[in-house]
UniProtKB/TrEMBL annotation:
<feature type="domain" description="N-acetyltransferase">
    <location>
        <begin position="24"/>
        <end position="195"/>
    </location>
</feature>
<dbReference type="InterPro" id="IPR016181">
    <property type="entry name" value="Acyl_CoA_acyltransferase"/>
</dbReference>
<keyword id="KW-0012">Acyltransferase</keyword>
<dbReference type="GO" id="GO:0016746">
    <property type="term" value="F:acyltransferase activity"/>
</dbReference>
<dbReference type="InterPro" id="IPR000182">
    <property type="entry name" value="GNAT_dom"/>
</dbReference>
<dbReference type="Pfam" id="PF13302">
    <property type="entry name" value="Acetyltransf_3"/>
</dbReference>
<keyword id="KW-0808">Transferase</keyword>
<dbReference type="InterPro" id="IPR051908">
    <property type="entry name" value="Ribosomal_N-acetyltransferase"/>
</dbReference>
<protein>
    <submittedName>
        <fullName>GNAT family N-acetyltransferase</fullName>
        <ecNumber>2.3.-.-</ecNumber>
    </submittedName>
</protein>
C-alpha cells in the first residue's frame, strides 16, 4: 500500500479508512482487492443447497457471482450520500482478501443506528474470522461514529450468523417473514445497544476523521 493510498484520495477519503484487529484489516477495496473479493465469490460463500441472503445474489454460476460482486461495490460508491450509505469493506486475513463486512445506515445523523451484513469465502469458514470482522465494524460504529444501536438479522436457519450476534449480546427485536426463492422464511431481527457493547481489545480505526462528513457525523459530535 502506497502512502497516497494509506491517506486516501483527497476527494474520496473513504479510501484511507481502515479498521485493524489482532488478525484482520478491513478497508474499502482497491480494484485489486475487488478482484480478489470477486474470486472469493466465484469460489463459493456458503454450502450448496442453502441460501442465507434475502437477495439471492449467490444463486448463479461462478463468473456471474464474480461480476455481481464487482458491480455491487461500484453501485455502493456511486450512490453514497450522508443521508444513506453502505460502507462495505474488504476483509484481509494474512494479507489475502477473504470476504466482505458492511455497515449501513439511513439518516444516521438522526437515528444513530446502523445495520450490518457480511459474507466470507467458504474455505475460510470455521476460523473465527466472521466473529472478528463483525466486532471490527461494531467498534467503528460505536467508538468511531458514535452509534447508539446496531441491528442485524438472519434467517432462522442461518445458525452461524445468529451465533455471532448472540456472542456480542444482541437482543431479540422481533421477526419478519421474507420470500426466499418462492418460499416463506422467518427472519430473526436483533439489536445491540451501545451500552451493551463490550468493546474490541486491540482494535484500531485509521483515517476516520476526514470521512466523518460522508457518514453524516460532525467532527465535534458529542456522541463520539
Amino acid at each position: 500500500m502506497t502512502e497516497r493510498q494509506h491517506r486516501g484520495m483527497r476527494n474520496w477519503p473513504l479510501t484511507g479508512l481502515r479498521v485493524t484487529t489482532p488478525r484482520l484489516e478491513l478497508r474499502l477495496p482497491s480494484l485489486d482487492d475487488l478482484d480478489q473479493l470477486a474470486d472469493r465469490a466465484a469460489e463459493g460463500v456458503h454450502d450448496p443447497g442453502t441460501m442465507p441472503f434475502i437477495v439471492p445474489w449467490s444463486d448463479a454460476g461462478p463468473e456471474e457471482r464474480a461480476r455481481r460482486t464487482v458491480q455491487y461495490h461500484f453501485s455502493l460508491w456511486s450512490s453514497w450520500s450522508p443521508a444513506e450509505w453502505t460502507c462495505a469493506f474488504a476483509v484481509l486475513f494474512e494479507g489475502e482478501v477473504v470476504g466482505t463486512q458492511a455497515i449501513a445506515a439511513t439518516d444516521f445523523a438522526v437515528t444513530r443506528e446502523i445495520t450490518s451484513g457480511s459474507w466470507l469465502g467458504r474455505r475460510f469458514h470455521g476460523r473465527g474470522i466472521g466473529t472478528e470482522m463483525r466486532a471490527a465494524v461494531l467498534h467503528l460504529a460505536f467508538e468511531g461514529l458514535g452509534a447508539r444501536y446496531a441491528t442485524s438479522g438472519a434467517f432462522v436457519d442461518n445458525h452461524a450468523s445468529l451465533a455471532v450476534s448472540r456472542k456480542f449480546g444482541y437482543a431479540d427485536d422481533g421477526v419478519q417473514i421474507h420470500n426466499r426463492q418462492g418460499e416463506p422464511v422467518t427472519t430473526l431481527r436483533l439489536r445491540l445497544s451501545r451500552d451493551d457493547w463490550a468493546g474490541g481489545l486491540g482494535f484500531k480505526i485509521h483515517g476516520l476523521e476526514p470521512c466523518l462528513p460522508l457518514f453524516g457525523v460532525a467532527p465535534t459530535s458529542p456522541d463520539r
